[in-house]
Amino acid sequence: MSAVKFSSSEAIDFLVIGAGAAGGVIAKELSSAGFSVVVLEQGPYHREQDFSHDEIKYTFQPGLTNDPKLQPITYRKSEAEKAKPVKAIEYGRQVGGGTVHFTANYWRFHESDFKERSLYGSITGTGFADWPISYADLEPYYTKAEYDLGISGLAGANPFEGPRSKPYPLPPMPVKSSGVLFERATKKLGLHPFPAPMAILSQPYRGRTACAHCGFCESFGCELGAKSSTLVSVIPTAERSGRCEIRPNSYVRQIKIDQRGRVSGAVYFDAERREIFQRAKAVMLCANGVESARLLLLSTSNQFSQGLANSSGLVGKYLMWDTGSEVNGLFEHPLNEYKSIQVTRLIHDYYRADPKRGFYGGGGIDARFDYYPAGFALHGMPKDVPKWGSEYKAALKTYYTRTMVLLSHTTSLAVEKNTITLDPDVKDAWGLPAPRVTFDRHPDDTATLRWMIPKQVEILETAGAKKVWVQPFDVPNLMPSRHLMGTCRMGDDPKNSVVNRYSRSHDIPNLFIVDGSNFVTSGRQQPTATIQALAYRAADYAIRAAKRGNLS
Amino acid sequence: MNSTRRYWLSTCLATTAWAEIASALEHAHATSKSVAPPAFETLDSEAAAEIEAIAAQIIPSADGPGAREAGVIYFIDRALSTFDADKREAYYAGMGEIQQRRKELFPSSTSISSLTNEQQIELIHAIEHSAFFELLRTHTVMGFLGNPSYGGNRSGVGWEYIGFEDRMAFQPPFGYYDEKLSGPSK
């Protein structure tokens, strides 16, 4: 727990909103540099002993994620519709945020990801654009993240990756049967499999224990602290600095501004729902790609009637989605994929877009198994197996230990009418307007999925699968998104973007917005490494600006 | 991308408050210590027998422990008493419709549990596409394969049947192919 307590009436140097992938990193960087920091986190502060292997609690219930009963989300496909309550987005809601319960895939973006508009040209009806920064700008921060957090992987194994200044700090995790089958098949097809870079410790690291292969990563908190969440890596460092106070159960409702139009702190509800105003010299908003935009839209005032940092009108716009296709294969012998981490091998051969295909898009494919027993029995079986009775039961016995999954992770184009806005009717348990999601997949995103599926089938068949089945991806069209990207996009022109190349608001110099909302393009999903690299870069810049007295 | 896409339906069906889960676990813990079979909290024994008869057809007991041996009905009672308390109405209404269907199909019968095996299967085929059957199927599977602390999956019989082991640690090799095809584990 935080050793230091700050008074709310005293203006601390930095107020960080959200203790997740970005907020945890920023809290550590700023406090280590000598600044006073308060982190407001809406969720609880869990410890390793609070976690368990309870599938019912963590996958059938919102054990570590936003609870739609308290915080409804509404969804509509287009502006013409009335939005209805649906858990359209899901995010980690605790100290550590989504890095607590994520699968721990840790992909760097490729060099091409930052300049795809230049490479492929404009795409009608989209906000397809280059990032204002390059891979080279971000590379030192990817490296810093990998070492600070503890990432396992094999440098140079992915021939499509950009240059790296250092190898991974830890060797790759042991390969599983899915990885062995995938590696053999993809090599036979002339592709380039490589060990999955994972935010999971393959060896003890900086006082933390190595993974014991229990298998409960995705949707679960790690009971050993071997998953490299911000909860067990950078946040303890921030607290040890003596200059950082983490305040869990603190739900921010508004960022405040002073008469000069600078942010002066934030008002939040504490655990007893008392309203508290924490004063601060600068605010780092790291609440995720949905909640950051929502909070800016909630923070209206006479000076900023359209919400904070929104002179462009783009806050909440260009929401991009968690997109991919799933194909499963049954093998002759037991793979026992329920053991150990979910992913051990993948390919990036289909990552880059190719205009010859007639559409924009591409993706990575990984070999995995991310089903727990009840979830598999309900949702993982092929359609031609009966859904009940002795044949169903016998099939569970055959399939559970012999099935693997190939999952693609594909592009989601930035479209201006895909948005987060405030719902005019539905309120959360604190009386604040619910986030309203308006989203429809761009036709190129669907074309990409259709193009990927035969590649997945081909790999499984080459691997010797006895049976291959494709999970539906059209119905329902929309699955909940856990990769929250867009909504406060980064750019050099204040008319076309919300933050600058250092994640600093164009409009308000002492406000930074740092999380998936900054993304200009979706990469190929797996956004965490890039969110964290952006966070290190923003913190680096904010520290230099603050030291020069250039933050107010 | 993740398992959420698959739990879409379940998530829509079941949203819950934390206190309810805690209470469910506490109750399950208390009952696991008692010797006598736990009493039902929400279901009466007659309704429980009828629901269990269907659950036992969803996961029968022929080739190893099924829903009955796993104590699925106790899981369902627990769910309806705690995190899925808002599904009680669906159970009353859904079971009412199934009883109606039973009377139509087998006019001289008095209960689902007293039907023959073949009659029960015929009855379920008649209702298997209903929303309530999907709810009951979901609960039955959760009770067979979910954490034993909720009253079902007694002694992990469901896990044992499908070949899943709940352990804090495993060592490579994990499966047949990483053992046979990749040489020494790396």
Plain-language structure description:
The complex is a heterodimer of chains A (552) and B (186). By secondary structure, chain A is α/β, with parallel strands linked by helices. Chain A is built from twelve helices and 17 strands. In chain A, α1 (21-32) packs parallel to α12 (528-547), α5 (135-150) packs across α12 (528-547) and α6 packs across α11. The longest helix of chain A is centred in the last third of the chain and has 20 residues, at 443-462. Chain A starts with 11 loop residues before the first strand and ends in a 5-residue tail after the last helix. The model of chain A has no long low-confidence stretch (mean pLDDT 97). Chain B has 186 residues and is mainly α. In chain B, 56% of the residues lie in helices and 0% in strands. In chain B, α5 (72-81) crosses α8 and α6 crosses α7. The longest helix of chain B has 18 residues, at 88-105. Chain B is globular and about 60 Å long. The two termini of chain B are 28 Å apart. Residues 1-22 and 29-34 of chain B have low confidence and may be disordered. Classes of the chains: A alpha/beta (552), B mainly alpha (186). Chains A and B meet through α2, α6, α9 and α10 of A and α1, α8, α9 and α10 of B.
Oligomer: heterodimer
Q: Give me the count of strands of chain B.
A: 0
Biggest sheet layout of chain B: none
| % residues in beta strands of chain A | 15-25%
- Mean pLDDT of chain A, as a whole number? 97
Structural class of chain B: mainly alpha
Low-confidence stretches of chain A: none
The helix fraction of chain A, in percent, is 10-25%
- Supply Rg of chain B: 19 Å
**Which H/E pattern describes the elements of chain B?**
HHHHHHHHHH
Coarse structural class of chain A: alpha/beta
SSE sequence of chain A, one letter per element: EHEHEEHHHHEHEEEEHEEEHHEEEHEEH
